[in-house]
C-alpha cells in the first residue's frame, strides 16, 4: 500500500488516533468509514489514481480493509485504469 493512498484514506477514518498510521489490515468501518464517506472516498480515489472501479468491486469485501481497497485500486491501475 502506497503512502499516498494511506494519506488519502486518513480524513475518512475519524476513529483513527491522531498520528497513528493506517495499517493494511485496518478495518475501515471500525475506523469510522460509513457508506456516504465511502462514496466520497471512491471519487477521491478515482480522481487521484485515474481509475474507475467497476460496479462488481463496489462491495463490502473491497471496502473491508485498507489493503483490500488498495488491492482493488492497484489491480485497476495495472489493467489500464479507466473503464
UniProtKB/TrEMBL annotation:
Annotated keywords: Phosphopantetheine, Phosphoprotein
Domain Carrier: 1-77
Domain of life: Bacteria
Keyword Phosphoprotein carried by entry: yes
Record's protein name: Acyl carrier protein
Origin organism lineage: Bacteria, Bacillati, Actinomycetota, Actinomycetes, Streptosporangiales
